[in-house]
Design a protein that fits this description.
Blueprint lengths: L1 H22 L9 E12 L5 E14 L2 E14 L2 E16 L4 E12 L4 E17 L3 E16 L8 E14 L5 E12 L3 E14 L2 E12 L9 E12 L1
Antiparallel strand pairs: 1-2, 1-12, 2-3, 3-4, 4-5, 5-6, 6-7, 7-8, 8-9, 9-10, 10-11, 11-12
Length: about 240
């Protein structure tokens, strides 16, 4: 009888722990895929007839220590029924984090700009990256690498195609300065013996509702050597709706 009472007492004492174990939710699996989709559109009519559209898709798959990124963006502009801009840019990159704040990367990019004097440009680079600062509200990376660039000109009579080795430097800063707003700054330069191409992109993203945000971005691309009649600096200001997933 005493043994039965002891077993009953032990069961009563353990019942809360058993109940908690049964009700404890299963651990969530880490989110492997994430990304952003941007869509922008401007249509003016009256004294000025102009249409501008832009789109961007940025996809990330992260499964430590690996990280894969795919990016595509396009800009199209037409004023008074005349095309004034047509650009397509895409890149992929693969990172391997071999320590808490260091990684190696490989990057492939492809660009078409109908008003740059070049038909298309290809680059392939590989190198090292450092995460200088990583907190909940601030993330800052810098990286350096070596690669190769091919640029095919639009008119071979006024310029020659370019093929050369390059040295790439870049930095990416993400600062979440409030619960609903984020600032992003990208700086990069690809230096070769014949040409140097540098890019600066500044963007502010403000959450509107849920996963939907308003994004304002300013992009400057500077090409040191350009075909005759082409400007060195190409500047773009974009306003778009952003959806994060």
């Amino acid at each position: 009888m005493n043994n039965n009472l002891k077993l009953i007492a032990v069961a009563i004492a353990m019942s809360p722990a058993l109940a908690f174990a049964e009700e404890a939710p299963a651990e969530e699996e880490p989110k492997l895929w994430s990304g952003d989709v941007d869509l922008g559109y401007v249509n003016l009519s009256g004294n000025t007839n102009e249409t501008t559209t832009s789109g961007q898709i940025h996809v990330v798959r992260e499964n430590a220590p690996w990280k894969f990124v795919a990016h595509f963006e396009t800009i199209y502009s037409e004023a008074e029924d005349v095309k004034t801009a047509e650009k397509y840019d895409a890149y992929t990159r693969l990172e391997y984090n071999y320590s808490d704040n260091k990684y190696v990367f490989g990057r492939l990019s492809y660009s078409i700009d109908k008003f740059s004097g070049f038909d298309d440009q290809y680059t392939a680079t590989a190198g090292l990256g450092w995460n200088l600062y990583k907190e909940e509200t601030l993330d800052w990376d810098v990286e350096a690498g070596l690669g190769y660039r091919v640029a095919n000109v639009e008119d071979p009579l006024i310029a020659e195609d370019e093929e050369e080795s390059i040295f790439r430097l870049s930095t990416l800063l993400k600062w979440k300065f409030s619960e609903t707003a984020e600032f992003v700054q990208l700086l990069s330069t690809e230096m070769g013996a014949d040409n140097t191409i540098s890019v600066s992109e500044s963007a502010i993203k403000v959450q509107v509702i849920g996963a939907v945000s308003f994004k304002l971005a300013y992009l400057v691309k500077y090409t040191e050597e350009v075909p005759v009649g082409i400007e060195h600096s190409d500047k773009t200001t974009l306003a778009s709706i952003n959806y994060s997933f």
